[in-house]
Amino acid sequence: xxxxxxxxxxxxxxxxxxxxxxxxxxxxxxxxxxxxxxxxxxxxxxxxxxxxxxxxxxxxxxxxxxxxxxxxxxxxxxxxxxxxxxxxxxxxxxxxxxxxxxxxxxxxxxxxxxxxxxxxxxxxxxxxxxxxxxxxxxxxxxxxxxxxxxxxxxxxxxxxxxxxxxxxxxxxxxxxxxxxxxxxxxxxxxxxxxxxxxxxxxxxxxxxxxxxxxxxxxxxxxxxxxxxxxxxxxxxxxxxxxxxxxxxxxxxxxxxxxxxxxxxxxxxxxxxxxx
Length: 275
Hints:
Oligomer: single chain
Number of helices: 5
Radius of gyration: 17 Å
Number of strands: 16
Structural class: alpha+beta
Distance between the termini: 37 Å
CATH topology: Jelly Rolls
CATH superfamily: q2cbj1_9rhob like domain
CATH architecture: Sandwich
Shape: globular
Helix content: 10-25%
């Protein structure tokens, strides 16, 4: 196993994230982009709204990324050898688009406890300040869960527009990544991203999240895959890996999974958004 170096692990523990981690070649990353474009062409609405979630359940290309040994080696350095894929999300920002991600903590709304889990953010295309890369408020993972305000802003790419107020921008750090690079961040770190002001698409494929097998879902139900090790706890329903793109059986199961995920994301909310 080639996991995180001692320096990388210290950065994660001290700052709440580690970046960049070289995972894919630009050519391998482009295969993901091609897969997205194929789905968008043949099934134009499949990745809209809730459809951006659990994409690894319907596509062998996305599934393969979730089980990439380089990623899993890095993840194992943080959460241990028994690893589940707890979900995936596509974050696509089209050119000159108003879409942004408000300041938030993943732990606030995802429902995984204890916090033995980590989110992996893979740059399918380059992610930089111009096209709206993530920004991290380093060190906030050591603090408490902050109050989030539901805004339901139409341009906010989060489900309910959940927002941490009064984040000092000058204390946040841009998490720039080249195509094929990855970052790992802690459930408690405050992070967000600005709109894409470039002339090209910015695409991120997010494993949200890799969870230790000791992690339960305390709000609702999720569907998982065994990525590494053994699941001795059996908290979640396990699914098989897809062998073809958009099989009827896989699509039906993903629809069910997304319905359950929506219940988690909107738990306690007064209304529902489009994601």
